[in-house]
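User: Just a sanity check before I run the rest of the batch. Below are the structure tokens for the first item. I only need the designed sequence back.
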């Protein structure tokens, strides 16, 4: 019997990486209607690569909920210098959510928590159940897990 292997996607991290890496090109990728799609494409490409490498039996996506987190309550200056999400990324975020839904990949988000909190919680619970768990991320906080 094949061992259960869970892949948790740090969706915002993957999407932001694709956005900033591919957005530097002179002619960013667009749809036939002119909608920017380069970050969506980069996310999809990363998703397919990690699925091929890990060969998970289960996949889920951790997603940052809108608004402040419990860390803002504890420390009001938390991420105070972080720039707002670029407006050209927002529609691509919706496209990535649609992509995940099309692949039947559940999206987990919770108001007051970041995606890495969610990914860490899922990973801890899975490990307690002896499930081999992988987190696809570039976030140094999550890499420690």
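Assistant: Here's the designed sequence for the first item:
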């Amino acid at each position: 019997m094949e061992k259960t292997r869970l892949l948790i996607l740090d969706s915002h991290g993957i999407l932001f990486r694709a956005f900033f890496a591919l957005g530097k090109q002179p002619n960013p990728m667009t749809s036939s209607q002119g909608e920017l799609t380069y970050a969506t494409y980069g996310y999809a490409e990363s998703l397919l690569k990690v699925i091929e490498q890990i060969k998970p039996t289960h996949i889920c996506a951790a997603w940052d909920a809108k608004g402040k987190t419990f860390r803002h309550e504890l420390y009001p200056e938390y991420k105070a210098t972080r720039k707002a999400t670029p407006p050209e990324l927002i529609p691509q975020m919706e496209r990535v959510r649609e992509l995940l839904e099309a692949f039947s990949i559940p999206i987990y988000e919770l108001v007051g928590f970041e995606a890495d909190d969610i990914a860490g919680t899922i990973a801890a619970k899975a490990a307690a159940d002896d499930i081999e768990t992988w987190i696809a991320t570039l976030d140094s906080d999550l890499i420690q897990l």
